[in-house]
Design goal:
The chain has helices spanning about 1-30, 30-40, 80-95, 95-105, 120-125, 150-155, 170-175, 175-180, 220-235, 275-280, 290-300, 335-340, 345-355, 355-365, 395-400, 410-420, 455-470, 540-550; strands at about 45, 55, 60-75, 110-115, 135-140, 155-160, 165, 185-190, 195, 210-215, 240-245, 250-260, 315-320, 320-325, 425, 430-435, 440-445, 450, 485-495, 500-510, 520-525. By secondary structure, the chain is α+β, with helices and mostly antiparallel strands. The strands form 6 sheets. Strands 2, 3, 4, 5, 10, 16 and 17 form a 7-stranded mixed beta sheet that branches. Strands 12-11-21-20-19 form a 5-stranded antiparallel beta sheet, with helices on both faces. A hairpin with a 5-residue loop joins strand 2 (about 55) and strand 3. Helix 11 crosses helix 17, helix 12 packs across helix 17 (about 455-470) and helix 13 packs across helix 15 (about 395-400).
């Protein structure tokens, strides 16, 4: 008898343990999955009820806002005469009948038919009195200025769950801030699909996203895009970029790149258009890099503006390579001021040799070359620099005149701005102010990245750049009434292991007025065909933009 009792007890305990384990599995381990199944049949979670924050230009005008639209929803279980409903809704929603039929055949209480429907379309559908079709209010991103500043803004798309999410530019970088606090509610349905509870979760007070005010000036942005577009068409370039910065604060006044896109219709454009080349494309800067190298040599007292070049009488042979000037003209015993004026490659090899590799690499670091600038845009990459062990004498020589070294345009604009700002390098920044929905305002404080050169070096370099504008290759297009500092650049593009002289990156960088700079401008054209040199393409566009900005700022002539 005793062994029978023990056997029954063991069986009972085993059954109890098995039942407990199954309950634990379903109630604890699989509870989330069961909840999802329950929600899909008897309810659903409604998310993203908050309004996305606006993005405003420096004058407060919204360049990214929101408009109220509607999501058309259906309860397939409640929809009668589905064929008639499909025939009626297909032309209004611009959805093919097969897709509508598939959605209305689902065994669910809630199906999304279309998002972003305007009020006019909503009223058309309401007039049909279709049972089982309803609407949910939502916010759709709206860009009042169409494609203006698209590369700065990015766009708002959908994630894998259909929720709004920012991609690229400011929309991507500040996505969480713009979205605000995610809200959720649960809609519950009865057995035949009728809503019986609007929400059962406790809802916190709706907190919309914060709004951003930019340094970007709409007028300057428009000027930059207009002149860039005209230049691309005039010179047959494959693309181009313009960046304009306030050197004293690092504030981005404008940034444009082509090809571009309309952020409201981003889905109509190829993905490569979304890339902001100004912060994410590497290129060889050519002669626009020379002022940085010259500044380093001046700062280290390896040369002065009056130092004469000892190796500028002809091509220079280094490690089996023959290094020439861009136009095969040579200026024996030229001063460093004349080296910048003539954009003399052999003169810059002389400067690089005087500076030495250790100092050269030290100043690349001080100028932020090879590092992220920290600009508040999604997608920035850093320049590609070799380690010290990978440098050979010919590498130092060519890098001294901007070939064989890859950087981003924003790196060059940031570094060059230090010359315009008495040697102080500021962090580039797009957003000037953040305002939350409760009215709290945070002003973004300008940040100093470093002081790569002294103020006296910056002044000497500025005078050399003013001389380059007045007497250099682009003197024919300069604005005679103003002292402007600048430098042309033409870099051959490496193709299949060698440089193609007919495929170039043409550029110009400069600032004005030279003695109290209000802006620094970098203009770049990719593979211009009509004319291939920076002095013939980027320089005229630079001076056209500068002329409009000097007028916009009401700056009187400095000469």
């Amino acid at each position: 008898m005793r062994w029978r009792f023990r056997f029954i007890l063991i069986v009972f305990l085993f059954g109890f343990l098995l039942t407990s384990l199954r309950l634990f599995y379903w109630q604890i381990v699989k509870s989330a999955d069961l909840a999802k199944i329950g929600e899909s049949q008897y309810g659903r979670i409604i998310k993203n009820l908050s309004e996305r924050g606006e993005i405003r230009a420096s004058d407060g005008f919204p360049i990214a806002g929101n408009t109220i639209t509607y999501r058309v929803i259906s309860n397939p279980k409640e929809t009668r005469d589905k064929e008639k409903v499909i025939n009626a809704l297909s032309p209004i929603l611009e959805i093919d009948e097969a897709s509508l039929s598939a959605k209305l055949s689902l065994n669910l209480f809630w199906v999304s038919l279309k998002t972003g429907v305007n009020d006019s379309t909503k009223k058309k559908i309401e007039s049909l009195n279709i049972s089982g079709v309803d609407f949910e209010k939502e916010y759709t991103r709206f860009y009042p200025e169409s494609s203006l500043a698209a590369s700065l803004l990015g766009f708002v798309g959908k994630d894998e769950k259909g929720a709004d999410i920012g991609y690229f530019g400011l929309e991507g970088y500040y996505d969480k801030l713009l979205r605000g606090k995610e809200q959720s509610a649960v809609q519950i349905y009865d057995a035949i699909g009728r809503p019986i509870l609007a929400e059962i979760n406790k809802r916190e007070e709706d907190e919309g996203g914060s709004s951003l005010t930019l340094h970007m000036n709409r007028s300057i942005q428009f000027i930059a895009e207009r002149e860039l577009k005209n230049g691309i068409e005039r010179y047959g370039a494959e693309g181009g970029m313009v960046g304009i910065m306030d050197p004293k604060t690092g504030g981005l006044l404008a940034m444009a790149s082509f090809p571009t896109f309309d952020p409201a219709k981003y889905y109509e454009y190829p993905p490569e258009n979304f890339k902001n080349s100004f912060i994410s494309s590497l290129y060889e800067p050519g002669s626009t890099f020379k002022p940085l190298v010259m500044s380093a040599a001046l700062n280290e007292k390896k040369v002065t503006s009056a130092t004469r070049c000892a190796i500028c009488a002809g091509p220079i042979k280094i490690g089996g390579y023959s290094l020439k000037t861009w136009n095969d003209k040579y200026y024996p015993r030229s001063t460093m001021t004349e080296v910048i004026q003539h954009s003399d490659n052999t003169g810059m090899v002389f400067v690089g040799q005087r500076l030495g590799l250790d100092n050269f690499l030290k100043y690349l670091k001080k100028f932020g070359i090879g590092s992220l600038t920290g600009i508040d845009l999604q997608g920035e990459v850093a320049g590609d620099l070799k380690t010290k062990a990978q440098w050979y004498p010919v590498d130092l020589a060519t890098a001294s005149f901007g070939q064989g070294i890859s950087i981003t345009p924003i790196e060059l604009l940031t570094a060059f701005s230090a010359i315009a700002n008495n040697g102080v390098m500021m962090e580039p920044h797009v957003v000037a102010q953040v305002k939350s929905t409760n009215g709290k305002v945070v002003n973004i404080t300008p940040k100093i990245l470093g002081k790569p050169i002294t103020s006296s070096t910056a002044k000497i370099m500025t005078e050399m750049l003013v001389n380059a504008v007045d007497k250099g290759e682009a003197k024919w297009t300069a604005i005679k009434e103003y002292r402007i500092a600048g430098k042309t650049g033409t870099a051959s593009i490496p193709v299949a292991g060698h440089y193609d002289p007919e495929k170039t990156i043409a550029s110009f960088i400069g600032f004005a007025p030279a003695d109290d700079p209000k802006f620094v401008i970098l203009v770049i054209f990719d593979r211009p065909k009509a004319r291939i040199y920076g002095s013939e393409t980027a320089a005229p566009v630079f001076f056209s933009i500068a002329r409009d900005l000097l007028s916009l700022y009401k700056i009187p002539p400095t000469r």
